[in-house]
Amino acid sequence: MNQKNTLSLLTLNSLESQQAEKWFSQCCASPKWFKGMEHARPYANIESVVQAAKDIWQQCPTSEFLTAFEAHPMIGDVNSLRKKYAATKNMASNEQQGANDADDETLQNLASANHEYLNKHGFIFIICASGLSANIMLDALMLRLANDTATEIALAAAEQIKITLLRLEKGLVNKLEKGIQAS
Predict the structure, then answer these.
(1) Helix axes 149-171, 104-121, angle to 10 degrees
(2) Phi, psi of 7 (to 5 degrees)
(3) Which of 116, 125, 157, 174 is 20 to 30 A from 109 (CA-CA)?
(4) Would you give the end-to-end CA distance of the chain in angstroms?
(5) How far is it, in rounded angstroms, from Cα 8 to Cα 11?
(6) Within a 10 A sphere around the Cβ of 123, how many other Cβ atoms?
(7) Sign of the dihedral defined by the CA atoms of residues 117, 94, 20, 127, in that order
C-alpha cells in the first residue's frame, strides 16, 4: 500500500473532515457510510473503527449499497479494473489477484457471466475476492446468478462490508494482531 494512504489511528482522528471523508471513501464509496465514519470520530481503538464500520453499513439503505457497488470493477475485466480502481487503487490493490492468474477461457466465462448478472440485477457481481481463485469466483457467480435481485443485494452488501473491513485493515497502521474480522 502507498504510505500516504496508510494512517495511524491518531492521524485518522486528527484529519480535517474532508480529508477523513476522502480517506474513508477509499474503503467504501457509499457517501452515507464514509460521512458516518468521519462523523463517528474520534475512535478509541481499532475495535471501535470496526464496530462503527459495521453499524453504519447496517444503517445504509439499498441506494447506498448500489452506490458502493458501482465503485467496483467487474471481476476479471481489465479495462474496468483500470478505470474504476483509479480512486481506490492503493486500498484495493491485489483484491482480484486470483483473476490475474486465470486462463483465457475462465476470464471469458467470468466476463460473460458478469454481464448476464449485470443485465439481470442492474449492478455488478460483488464478492470479497481476496484469496479466491478465478474458478472459485466463477463458481460463486454461477450459483448466485439464479438468485432474485433482493437476495443478491443482501449478499452483495454482506460481501461489501468484508471488502471494506479489509481495506480499513490495510489502511490503518496499528492493526489488530489477528486482523479485522467481518463477523
Answers:
(1) 120
(2) -125, 155
(3) 157
(4) 24
(5) 5
(6) 19
(7) positive
The pTM (predicted TM-score) of the whole model is: 0.82
Residue 128 contacts residue 117 (beta carbons within 8 Å): no
HSE (CB half, 13 Å, CA atoms) of 3?
Answer: 0
The set of residues, in sequence order, having a beta carbon less than 8 Å from that of 133 and lying 6+ positions away, is 98, 101, 102
Could you read off the pLDDT of 42-71 as tens digits, one per residue? 999 999 999 999 999 999 999 999 999 999
Which of the residues are catalytic?
72
DSSP 110-153: HHHHHHHHHHHHSS------TT--HHHHHHHHHHHTTS-HHHHH
